[in-house]
Amino acid sequence: GAGVSQSPSNKVTEKGKDVELRCDPISGHTALYWYRQSLGQGLEFLIYFQGNSAPDKSGLPSDRFSAERTGGSVSTLTIQRTQQEDSAVYLCASRKKGLAGDQETQYFGPGTRLLVL
Amino acid sequence: SQQGEEDPQALSIQEGENATMNCSYKTSINNLQWYRQNSGRGLVHLILIRSNEREKHSGRLRVTLDTSKKSSSLLITASRAADTASYFCATDEGNTGKLIFGQGTTLQVKP
User: Fold this and answer.
1) What would the mean pLDDT of A67-79 be, rounded to a whole number?
2) What is the pLDDT of residue A103?
3) Are B76 and B23 in contact, with CB atoms under 8 Å apart?
């Protein structure tokens, strides 16, 4: 079946502009995660959505970052007034959610490579 | 913040040799997972080991977990050039599934 997809694959923007990154999780997966991978920081958790519950935003680095998940499926990560330090690969993952077998596994998308000039 | 450390940071071996990577973490966990990443893009899940398990196998992969030492190891046997990639351990601390990643080990397998 289809995996997690992300768009765009690459995004180049100018400092100060807003960007939106999209994630389409695997159908039926109730949990969705955003991570960021940058050269200096490795892989960092950003935000987590589970069903209709309030998202866990504890990993967002500043109030310029926000995310939403519409209809329990597609998610959009928005970065306002981008800065050069926002340059990174943004990875989305989804999970079926559960404690049995494969339901603990997170499936990652290919990522969006963001470059802020 | 990073949960732990992996070592070595880089490993270069010949095809056919075994590769061992180690991961240490700091807090109590529900499970520990190993992922592989090619060319800095999407992560591929390799294997998951739960906190009450000590060893797990999947094909040429063997993972061990020592919760008393808060450490895990990933062994790749009979390595192939196609195993060249970065390998990350990630811990799941609670019920959310929020993963905390190590810094990764870059493995190069020379043909």
Assistant:
1) 92
2) 60
3) no
